[in-house]
Structure formats: C-alpha cells, structure tokens
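We modelled the chain as a single entity of 307 amino acids. Its sequence is:
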Amino acid sequence: MKRRKIASLLGLLFLLFYIPSLWAKSVPFKNPNFPRLVETGELAPLISHPSLRLVDMRSSLLDYLKGHLPDALYFHFENFRVPRNGIPAQNPDRIALEKIMGEYLSLSNDMWVILYSEKSNPNATLLAWILDSLGHRKVGILNGGWEKWVVEGRPITQTYPTLSPKKFFGKTVSETLAEKKLVLHQVNTKGAIILDARPPKQYSGEEGEEIRKGHIPGAKNIFWETVLEGEEVKVWKKKEDLEKIFSEAGVDRQKEVIVHCRTGREASHLYFTLKYVMGYHKVRLYRGSWVEWSADPSLPIKTGMEP
C-alpha cells in the first residue's frame, strides 16, 4: 500500500514537472517555415505556449486596455522611430533594438513571435521587418489581426502578461536593407525595381507635408492596402491575386526589389508580402524613405502618377 502511494506521488511529480518541461521545449508550430502568415485557428491552441511571444501592435493603447489576446503584451510602433543625423523617424541601431527585444518584449532568440494589429495594417509588419533585419526568422503575422480574432468569438482579456527581461542578440542582415546611396545608384542604372507603398496622392505630389513632394524617379506606386481584401476584417489576398497585382505593375521576381514609403512603416507591408507571402527572394527596404530622400535637394524627384 505504501509503495503504491509512493508510486502515485512520483507519477504526480512526473506530470507536474516533466510534461510542462516537454511543452516548453516543443516546437509550437507544425509548419516551422517562418516568417509567414499565421491563421487564427492555428494560433488559438498555442496562445499560452512558453516559447511564444504575442505582441499587440495596434495604434491605440486604449484599445489594448479595453481588451487584447491572452498573454499579449502591448508595444507601439513609434518606439521604432528615432532621429538620425537630424532626419526624423529613422531606425534605432542594433544595440538599442536588442535592448527593446530582450528587456521590453521579453524575447529570446529561441522564441517565436506572433504579431497582430488592427485591419492588418503595417504596424505589425514593421516589427516583422526589424526582426528580419536582425536575423530573427521565427516571426508570424496574424492574418486578419484583431478583428478576425474577435469576429470568430475567440478569447480576449484585460489582464497583462507576467514577463521578465530576457537576452536577445541580433546581427545586421544587410540584404534586408537599402541605404540612400544604393537607391540613388539603382535610380541611375535602373538595376532594381523601386516600389512606393504610399497612398497615390502622396506619390503624385498632390499631398504631403515634406519639404518636397512627389516620388523617386522610376518608382512604381503600389499602395500597401492594395494587397488586402475585406471590409471590417482585412486579410491578405490569395497568392494568385497578389501575383496579378505585382505583375501588372511590372514587378519581376528575378530582379531585386526595393520598397519604401514615407518612413518605412508602410513599405514593411509590401516587404512582408513580397518576401514571405509571395516568395520573392531579393527584397530590400529603404528605411530612410521619403522623409530622408525629400530633404536632400541634390536628389531627383518626380511628380504625377508616372514612375
């Protein structure tokens, strides 16, 4: 009898300590091909997995306070905009980004990150691109974002997650980046396809607050929201529809593509779509984008809807 009790106790201890340990070490996703879109039904059973970090990137903190996905922490995209050499809204350096990822997002290199925002907007894709530029590929974007999760009646909470700082180490992946000098070279040589993700009126020069209005000569305009479908719930269009959009704009997957917008945020949406939804291999993001380009009077600009 006594031996049975001891055996039962040992079995209970096994369940309490060994099974959670296996859960923590297990790969949360059956399809480990990341970065990519993640569907709500795929995320739902994994939402509390210890190897998963869920980040709410919606534009309003008040929306997060009213309700968010369980275990999601809140982070605003403006934290990734700093002045550099007087130019506003530029990328923090690698050391600063490592601190953000590890200390503030409680992210380590062996963890998966799932990001969501409202209306599938570029808030989440900006962080996805930053992580890609640091060499962290375990990144997913929740397709349909907050609205799809709520419409499907999935659980939400007002409780904050309990997290502690972690260590995150990044590396600069130069293939994800385009600097002003490289963009100018491509403008002069026409060696790459340059895409502008801003709204058409900003592209044409009809609207805009910058010192000079218009676009980079040769750049083609594909507004970031063009790749989405739906009204209240916005999801990525089917791959064949996306192929049509980009092929009609003259985007050749054999050539290098450089995406930009006003500050890099909207361009990150096209970056993620081209590279991780459609499978383009050679895509860079010009982080300086129009706020940097327009401020340099030595650089050419063009107005109107023609590239």
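As a brief sanity check on the tokenised model: Confidence is low (pLDDT under 50) at residues 9-24. Residues 15 and 21 are 10 Å apart (CA to CA).
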